[in-house]
Amino acid sequence: MSAYNAASPQLKRMETLLVRLTTDEGLQGWGEAFGHLVNPASQAALGGLVGQLFLGARVGADPASFAASRLAAEQALHAFGRTGPVVYALSAIDTALWDLSAQIAGQPLYRHLGGRRDRIEAYASLVSYGNRPAEVARQVQRAQAAGYRRIKLHETEYPAISAARQALPADIGLMVDVNCPWNLAEAETRIRGCRDLQLGWIEEPLWPPDDIDGLASLRRRGTPIAAGENVSGVEAFRQHFQQGAIDVAQPSVAKIGGISAMREVFAMAARHGVQVMPHCFYYGAGMLATAHLAASLPAPAALEVPFLQWPRPLYPDFPREAEIRLPDQPGLGWVPDPGVLNDYRIDGCSLRLDGENA
Predict the structure, then answer these.
(1) Which of 111, 344, 348, 353 has the fewest CB atoms lying closer than 10 Å?
(2) Which pLDDT score is estimated for 1?
(3) H or E segment to which residue 150 belongs
(4) Is 34 buried (19+), middle (13-18) or exposed (0-12) by CB count in 10 A?
């Protein structure tokens, strides 16, 4: 059995699970649930109990208008885990509710979240190139030529990571996401070996990813440690912060519980003096929401963008540059191309208050 890796070049397609909420007045809010090729599990949750809990929810300009329904849903569904398809479904709905709330308030989402900067940096998140040094070097040079000042690899071997560092000027930041491969002893050895590469961070070095004590130990090895994409909810971040386990917190809006949960993590990180750099290997509403969330954080918080090219982009007007200007339109500000939605749609369902669900 081969391992599944969403950053692998063997992956020939990348799926997104979009959620659209419609108000009685005709406003539409968009969210995204994590899942990629296992999206059917999150879709089943959305089409079942999770979606049913939000039918008829009231949404206003004040986020408190939907906070009670969101909290009630979390409490009702807690027995199904603090991560996984049910939480991913909740994440999509929460993001769509925030989009609606910002539209009702007449504000771009980042301003509705308290942000002031309308421009953010994007950094290139590369797929894995199988630890092939020459190909890794070629790809990071492509990303640099596209204007990116920070680049993230998904490689695990020193020769490949070193090739990237040598191919780039010293002032280009380089980070590495290794996707939870090592036990503590092996991680200590690997990180010690990479010390000369001056990495911005090593992301998720341990298996299991919630080995908080192990992460805290690795922080003493001299290379910043980033983690958080795979934690089990907001409370798990609290434990990471309290135990001093990470240098960079990486909550993921489509996995942790949406924008509401992201804001809770942001507040905790600020109290503990931990930098936040949201995870975002998405290209749907989760990417748009993360852009607005990054703008609500102090610099150097930036938007992670998959360094991929699409035959037809879901958001034709979304910037492809290393600096992104957020739109002035209320809410997320970008809407998906209806032609792309129609031509590439795999499956879908709808829930209605009148009971005519499909």
Answers:
(1) 353
(2) 37
(3) strand 150-153
(4) buried
Rounded to 10 degrees, the C-alpha dihedral 171/172/173/176 comes to -140
Does one domain contain both 195 and 280? Answer: yes
3-state secondary structure 303-344: EEEECCCCCCCCCCCCCCCCEEECCCCCECCCCCCHHHHHHH
Residues 101 and 121 in one domain: no
Same-domain check for residues 77 and 122: no
Beta bridge partners of 20: 30
Residues 39 and 136 both lie in one domain? no
Do 161 and 239 lie in a common domain? yes
Residue 353 is assigned to a structural domain of this protein: no
Rounded CA gap, 168 and 144, in Å? Answer: 8
Task: Looking at the structure, tell me whether residues 145 and 285 fall in a common domain.
Answer: yes
CB distance 330 to 106 below 8 Å:
yes
DSSP string, 4-66: P-TT-TT------EEEEEE-TT--EEEEEES-GGGHHHHHHHHHTHHHHHHTT----SSTHHH
Q: Are strands 150-153 and 119-125 parallel, antiparallel or unpaired?
A: parallel
The pLDDT of residue 68 is above 90: no
**CATH number for the domain including 232?**
3.20.20.120
